[in-house]
């Protein structure tokens, strides 16, 4: 374990360092330790850092000091002697031709210095060219001695005059070194306790955790992501909407029929056959199976009549209603087609009040953009009871939207072929500082309900909205393709928070 | 929703008041309009065509106002102002009057019979002594365009032509001619063209090309001439240049040609009510006479005022307010529906003007009262409707399963229900014809060719777009696929599927297999060959050979799992091995004590509410005879059906070699579609069903196969489902019946209101271990009676390899008894040895 904290080789340094600290009064300097141990200063610094990580074993204070160091030339001199000494050394007893000396690398520099030291002389008149002879038997190479002192870290023994001269000769330079002043820490000890990373079953069993030191955690780092699956954000919002309806006592409608006949999708809702929503531009029609074959015959006749001639107190649309148009199979454009089926079935029994809801897919053959897809989820709520009023619809919408965290509502008159009155629901968006449309609502028309056979004094109120829009707002998604379909980034799914629909 | 653009300052001038944008927005909101955008011509051009084109364009502020799709009276400045002024009590709604021309004869428009082939209707009117200004003229043209786009359904239902009456002379003729025979100078052109030339000329016209299809393929084109042969218009394409309206025009001839007369009248009323304001006699319109091919004449515009009477109580109740009759009359009057209390109780007489064609029912009047009252002033109330919420069992199962699958480490994907044929077929190594996919006839792109028949392609595409994510990828989806199903009214049904994929450097079949095991654990299905689930090797072109297994649960195949075929992996642009699982989850729905809802509607109506429809007697022949007794026995019993099935084994029809009324009568006698055990009967039934629409035209029957209901049955035919021709049995049946009637009477006297129900668990034992239990179950389930609902079933081993069918049902005590049930089931003597009641519980 120690190996993990301190390099093997450095472990010895750390221990030596601790012993030095123990003996020293007032502390030691890392540089001195390094020089006395004969190791690089960085090794000592590493040991200091490692010991610091173990707790309050030592305390280290950074300080900076100036120090003399040999230049490259200085180092050469310290090893091989000064140039003048080397000149002296290279001259044999019978002298050396000056031209020969000058061929040596140190010849030219060393010659003049040796001359001024009077170690050598020059015989210019010597036959065969100027020749150099020794003048003394031996010399003392003081320059080298001084440099060796500096090299050993004992520059303080030199006089300032000498140091400046050597500096002038570019043999020495003064550098600033950073070192540590190391003293005992509050829990100083000369032995290094191994630092544990984790609590182990063994430690718990034998109680050794009590003596162990544990490596501190880095609380800045992130944890490991749990290995789990994730639910899709849109489905999480769907779950919440289901929950809200169930809390309000609404029964879920069976909407697992994407294919619907135009009859149930449009005609039964008193949506005329020339209505633009029934265009191929807006609705997906089927080529196979192209037509629906079975309809409750009597009801179909009543629907035909109310469209083409009126009745049930209505003028009707007065056009030639065609079964062929009603038979056409489509991908349902709204879940209200299922509501129509449910209300029709309800009318076939003795009427009892109901509250229904559904959240399921609907399909529109629309032009696609950032907020429109060919399919989306419609949320729908329906209440059928005797004597329901527009005030009831407004009241229930307030209750519903309050559960979504939306309390500021207002209602705009609107048009819808199968509801009258029809109201668009607006809520005040604090962020946008304006009213935004959040849903549609209305009271189903008698022309839709009475042909089904519902009692005349029964009213049916309903509202609808899309699931995608509140989800996009909730999760801050601007492009619907980033939410639904195969192009979604799974990271978004992984990262999405849970859905709490409160303000 | 149509959008009308009006110049702000012009609007405010007409309203006699200047509003801030916010104030006007607020007014619109109250009135059911929406101030959609505040812009200018320059802004629009610069946005659509760039700044350079916009220089020099007008800076006048435009309001773009959204108008409800049924309020044609608000599609122009004139109508908007009139509506708002009346709403603000600043103006009394004008009264529109049709007048005869000062100078004798009205303008006449003769319709010839040739128009019947292409566009049979026409109406007309005259705006006399009108004064146009540039603004009025623009608005006049704009309104025609708005009407064309909306109520006229892009001119297919109605097309409007307006003409300077002083340039033409009546009487006018509306006829239809072959395109080669029509020649005239169309609006804003310099020379004459034949209709054929015009059609090719306008092929490239960005505006007109959209209307060509309406008449293009017709042998004759509609055309209107004046008495000198001058062409007024070739509806619904273009007007003649000769009669075009200018700012100087004083008298306007308006004609509307149509395929829908009701809409033509509305459109004409709109045109003349809006612009008669600028006539020298405001709000008067000069009549025109339309002469039909048969000589009948009609005067237009109709400008009909309709009167409705309703009570203020009705409005108060529907809206949830409490206002006096007078106050409500005032509210309605604000909405251009002139109203007054009649003094008879709380009765109000409401006059619906010709501009309000949207008012077709008392509920429309009620809405107007609510709007005038202010939706946002209506007090909030809470319905007292007491209900207990139920979840749709399939969705409940789905929700629970989703949670646990995510907990099992799989991430939920959400893919489209629509996809390309290639996705569900070619890419999976299948043929599209094998898929039972429903096909879309008008997809805009290949992405919407079919509804998906499998969830697998969606998941594989999700992986393909997430290849950068760390492996393994573990995905699932629980959602509906759509399959063709002839037994459904629409010929298709949804099927709820669960699909999961594992994508990694190794196929991980064991991971997917483990997920199946976990899923079954969650569904409480144990691993067992007979009563639980097991998998067994299967061949499937989607999977790698030898690496696919079929999943069986309680003896039924519910899905497949395996390692995907490398070709499939490549076709979805994937690179790693992948294993997958897809199965139906509907077979795992548990029992519910509640009545569960379905979207299947009863095709036979149970009418409890009588309607005052006079044609009920006419419908009687098509309604089913009450008798189920036929020459083959009682076809509401299995025995009767069996005998009929045997008869049809080598015959196509009941009588002779063509469908006849004999088939129809027999078809009607059978209470519901027969089960597939009676394959001959089923084949005949479906065949005869296809004749339903032409049933009246079928030849009559030579002999009587369906026997009339006996009088003794009439009083209580709901329990005589198993009546028999056999006298001894019928005596027994009578005895049972009497006994039961006595029981009913006793029960009814105790609990008159409650419908007593019981839950019964039946043990149905086969003859031997070779009896096909699936068919046996089908037979049992084919037993249908009023008040009987079959529930879940399972096979329980009884020894020596024999299994008995244990099946639950819920019955209404008054209608169905165990003896009846047993009798009906033992009738399937080929399959059933005995029937015992294993459990009987009152609900």
From TrEMBL, chain A:
Entry EC no(s): 6.1.1.20
The Aminoacyl-transfer RNA synthetases class-II family profile domain, residue ranges: 236-497
GO terms classed as biological process: phenylalanyl-tRNA aminoacylation
Example of a GO MF term: tRNA binding
Alphabetical list of InterPro entries matching this protein: aa-tRNA-synth_II, aa-tRNA-synth_II/BPL/LPL, Phe-tRNA-synth_IIc_asu, Phenylalanyl-tRNA_Synthase, PheRS_DBD1, PheRS_DBD2, PheRS_DBD3
Classification via Pfam families: PheRS_DBD1 (PF18552), PheRS_DBD2 (PF18554), PheRS_DBD3 (PF18553), tRNA-synt_2d (PF01409)
GO cellular component, as recorded: cytosol; phenylalanine-tRNA ligase complex
Subcellular location as annotated: Cytoplasm
Keywords: Acetylation, Aminoacyl-tRNA synthetase, ATP-binding, Cytoplasm, Ligase, Magnesium, Metal-binding, Nucleotide-binding, Phosphoprotein, Protein biosynthesis
Major location (coarse): cytoplasm
Subunit (UniProt): Heterotetramer; dimer of two heterodimers formed by FARSA and FARSB.
UniProt cross-references to PANTHER family, sorted A to Z: PHENYLALANINE--TRNA LIGASE ALPHA SUBUNIT, PHENYLALANYL-TRNA SYNTHETASE
Family listed: Belongs to the class-II aminoacyl-tRNA synthetase family. Phe-tRNA synthetase alpha subunit type 2 subfamily.
Record's protein name: Phenylalanine--tRNA ligase alpha subunit
Species of the source: Sander lucioperca
From TrEMBL, chain B:
Compartments where located: Cytoplasm
Domain of life: Eukaryota
SUPFAM superfamilies associated with the record: Class II aaRS and biotin synthetases, eEF-1beta-like, GST C-terminal domain-like, PheT/TilS domain, Putative DNA-binding domain
Ranges of compositional bias, category Polar residues: 614-630
GO molecular function (one): translation elongation factor activity
Keyword annotations of the record: Aminoacyl-tRNA synthetase, ATP-binding, Cytoplasm, Elongation factor, Ligase, Magnesium, Metal-binding, Nucleotide-binding, Protein biosynthesis
UniProt xrefs under CDD domains: EF1B, GST_C_eEF1b_like, PheRS_beta_core
Keyword Transmembrane helix: no
EC number(s) per entry: 6.1.1.20
SMART domains (alphabetical): B3_4, B5, EF-1_beta_acid, EF1_GNE
Oligomeric form and interacting partners: EF-1 is composed of 4 subunits: alpha, beta (alpha subunit of the eEF1B subcomplex), delta (beta subunit of the eEF1B subcomplex), and gamma (gamma subunit of the eEF1B subcomplex). Interacts with elongation factor EEF1A1.
Function noted in UniProt: Catalytic subunit of the guanine nucleotide exchange factor (GEF) (eEF1B subcomplex) of the eukaryotic elongation factor 1 complex (eEF1). Stimulates the exchange of GDP for GTP on elongation factor 1A (eEF1A), probably by displacing GDP from the nucleotide binding pocket in eEF1A.
Protein name per UniProt: Elongation factor 1-beta
Chain's gene name: farsb
């Amino acid at each position: 374990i120690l190996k993990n904290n301190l390099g093997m080789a450095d472990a010895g340094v750390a221990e030596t360092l601790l012993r030095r600290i123990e003996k020293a009064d007032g502390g030691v300097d890392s540089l001195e330790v390094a020089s006395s141990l004969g190791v690089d200063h960085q090794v000592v610094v590493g040991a200091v850092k490692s010991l610091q990580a173990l707790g309050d074993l030592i305390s280290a204070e950074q300080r900076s000091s100036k120090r003399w160091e040999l230049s490259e030339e200085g180092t050469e001199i310290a090893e091989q002697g000064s140039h003048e000494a080397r000149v002296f050394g290279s001259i044999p007893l019978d002298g050396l031709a000056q031209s020969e000396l000058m061929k040596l690398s140190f010849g030219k520099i060393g010659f003049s210095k040796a001359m001024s030291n009077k170690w050598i002389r020059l015989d210019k008149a010597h036959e065969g060219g100027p020749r150099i002879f020794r003048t003394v038997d031996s010399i003392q190479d003081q320059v080298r001695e001084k440099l060796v002192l500096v090299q050993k870290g004992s520059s303080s023994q030199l006089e300032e005059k000498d140091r400046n001269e050597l500096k002038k000769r570019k043999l020495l330079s003064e550098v600033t070194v950073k070192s540590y002043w190391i003293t005992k820490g509050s829990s100083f000890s000369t032995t290094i306790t191994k630092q544990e990373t984790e609590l182990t079953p063994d430690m718990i069993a034998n109680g050794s955790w009590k003596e162990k030191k544990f490596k501190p955690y880095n609380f800045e780092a992130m944890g490991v992501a749990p290995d789990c699956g994730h639910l899709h954000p849109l489905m999480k919002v769907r779950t919440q909407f289901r929950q809200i309806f169930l809390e309000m006592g609404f029964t879920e409608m069976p909407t697992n029929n994407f294919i619907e006949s135009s009859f149930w999708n449009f005609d039964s809702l008193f949506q005329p056959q020339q209505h633009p929503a029934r265009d191929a531009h807006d609705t997906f029609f089927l080529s196979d199976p192209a037509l629906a074959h079975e309809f409750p015959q009597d009801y179909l006749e009543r629907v035909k009549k109310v469209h083409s001639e009126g009745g049930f107190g209505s003028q009707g649309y007065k056009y030639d209603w065609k079964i062929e148009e009603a038979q056409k199979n489509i991908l349902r454009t709204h879940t209200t087609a299922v509501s129509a089926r449910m209300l029709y079935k309800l009318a076939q029994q003795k009427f009892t009040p109901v509250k229904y809801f559904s959240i399921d897919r609907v399909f529109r053959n629309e032009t696609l953009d950032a907020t429109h897809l060919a399919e989306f989820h419609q949320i729908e709520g329906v209440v059928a009871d005797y004597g329901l009023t527009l005030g009831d619809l407004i009241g229930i919408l307030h209750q519903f939207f309050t559960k979504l965290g939306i309390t500021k509502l207002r209602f705009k008159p609107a048009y819808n072929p199968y509801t009258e009155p029809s109201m668009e629901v607006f809520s005040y968006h604090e962020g946008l500082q304006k009213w935004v449309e959040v849903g549609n609502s209305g009271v189903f028309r008698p022309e839709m309900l009475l042909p089904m056979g519902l009692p005349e004094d029964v009213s049916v109120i309903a509202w609808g909205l899309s699931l995608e829009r509140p989800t996009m707002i909730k999760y801050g998604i601007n492009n619907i393709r980033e939410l639904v379909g195969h192009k979604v980034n799974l990271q978004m799914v992984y990262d999405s928070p849970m859905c709490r629909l409160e303000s | 929703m149509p959008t009308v653009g009006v110049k702000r300052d012009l609007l405010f001038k007409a309203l006699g008041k200047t509003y801030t944008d916010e104030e006007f927005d607020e007014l619109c909101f109250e009135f059911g309009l929406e101030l959609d955008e505040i812009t200018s011509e320059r802004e629009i051009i610069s946005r659509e065509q760039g700044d350079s084109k916009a220089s020099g364009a007008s800076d006048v502020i435009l309001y773009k106002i959204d108008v409800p799709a049924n309020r044609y009276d608000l599609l122009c400045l004139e109508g908007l102002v009139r509506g708002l002024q009346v709403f603000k009590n600043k103006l009394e709604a004008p009264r529109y009057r049709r007048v005869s021309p000062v100078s004798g004869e009205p303008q006449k428009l003769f319709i010839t019979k040739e128009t019947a082939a292409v566009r049979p209707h026409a109406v007309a009117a005259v705006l006399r002594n009108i004064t146009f200004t540039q603004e009025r003229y623009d608005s006049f043209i704009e309104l025609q365009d708005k009407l064309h786009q909306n109520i006229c359904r892009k001119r297919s239902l109605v097309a409007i032509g307006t003409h300077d009456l002083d340039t033409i002379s009546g009487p006018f003729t509306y006829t239809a001619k072959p395109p080669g025979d029509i020649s005239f100078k169309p609006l804003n052109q310099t020379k004459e063209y034949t209709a054929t030339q015009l059609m090719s000329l306008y092929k490239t016209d960005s505006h007109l090309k959209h209307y060509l299809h309406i008449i293009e393929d017709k042998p004759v084109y509609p055309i209107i001439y004046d008495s000198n042969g001058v062409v007024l218009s070739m509806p619904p394409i273009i007007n003649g240049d000769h009669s075009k309206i200018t700012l100087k025009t004083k008298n306007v001839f308006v004609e509307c040609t149509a395929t829908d007369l009701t809409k033509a009248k509305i459109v004409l009323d709109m045109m003349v009510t809006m612009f008669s304001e600028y006539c020298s006699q405001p709000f008067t319109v000069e009549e025109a006479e339309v002469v039909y091919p048969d000589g009948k004449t009609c005067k237009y515009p109709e400008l009909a005022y309709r009167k409705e009477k309703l009570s203020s109580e009705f409005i108060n109740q529907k809206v949830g307010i409490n206002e006096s009759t007078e106050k409500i009359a005032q509210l309605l009057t604000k909405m251009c529906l002139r109203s007054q209390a009649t003094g008879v109780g709380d009765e109000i007489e409401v006059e619906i003007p010709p501009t309000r064609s949207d008012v077709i029912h008392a509920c429309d009047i009620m809405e107007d009262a609510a709007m005038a009252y202010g939706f946002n002033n209506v007090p909030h109330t809470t319905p007292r409707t007491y209900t207990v919420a139920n979840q749709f069992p399939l969705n409940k199962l789905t929700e629970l399963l989703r949670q646990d699958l995510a907990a099992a480490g799989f991430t939920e994907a959400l893919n489209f229900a629509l996809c390309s044929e290639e996705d569900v077929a070619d890419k999976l190594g299948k043929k599209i014809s094998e898929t039972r996919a429903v096909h879309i006839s008008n997809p805009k792109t290949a992405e919407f060719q079919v509804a998906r028949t499998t969830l697998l392609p969606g998941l594989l595409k999700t992986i393909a777009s997430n290849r950068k994510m760390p492996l393994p990828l573990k995905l699932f989806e629980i959602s509906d696929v759509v399959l063709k199903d002839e037994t459904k009214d629409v010929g298709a049904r949804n099927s709820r599927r669960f699909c999961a994929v594992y994508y990694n450097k190794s196929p991980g079949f064991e991971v997917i297999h483990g997920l199946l095991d976990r899923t079954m654990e969650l569904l409480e299905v144990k691993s067992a060959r007979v009563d639980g689930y097991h998998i067994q090797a299967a061949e499937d072109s989607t999977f790698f050979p030898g690496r696919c297994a079929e999943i069986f649960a309680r003896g039924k195949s519910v899905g497949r799992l395996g390692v995907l075929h490398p070709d499939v992996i490549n076709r979805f642009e994937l690179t790693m091995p992948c294993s997958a699982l897809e199965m139906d989850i509907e077979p795992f729905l548990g029992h519910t004590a509640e009545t569960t809802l379905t979207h299947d509607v009863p095709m036979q109506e149970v009418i409890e509410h009588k309607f005052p429809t006079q044609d009920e007697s006419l419908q009687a022949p098509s309604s089913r005879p009450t008798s189920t007794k036929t020459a083959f026995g009682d076809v509401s019993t299995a025995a009767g059906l069996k005998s009929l099935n045997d008869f049809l084994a080598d015959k196509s029809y009941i009588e002779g070699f063509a469908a006849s009324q004999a088939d129809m009568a027999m078809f009607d006698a059978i209470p519901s579609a027969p089960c597939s055990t009676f394959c001959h009967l089923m084949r005949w039934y479906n065949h005869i069903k296809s004749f339903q629409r032409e049933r009246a035209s079928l030849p009559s029957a030579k002999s009587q196969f369906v026997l009339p209901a006996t009088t003794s049955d009439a009083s209580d035919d709901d329990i005589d489902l198993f009546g028999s021709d056999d006298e001894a049995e019928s005596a027994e049946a009578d005895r049972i019946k009497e006994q039961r009637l006595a029981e009913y009477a006793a029960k009814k006297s105790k609990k008159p209101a409650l419908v007593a129900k019981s839950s019964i668990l039946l043990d149905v034992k086969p003859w031997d271990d070779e009896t096909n239990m699936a068919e046996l179950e089908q037979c049992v389930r084919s037993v249908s009676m009023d008040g009987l609902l079959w529930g879940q079933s399972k096979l329980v081993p009884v020894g020596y390899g024999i299994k008995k069918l244990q099946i639950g049902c819920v019955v209404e005590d008054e209608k169905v008894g165990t003896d009846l049930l047993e009798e009906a089931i033992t009738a399937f003597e080929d399959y059933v040895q005995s029937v015992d009641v294993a459990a009987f519980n009152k609900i």
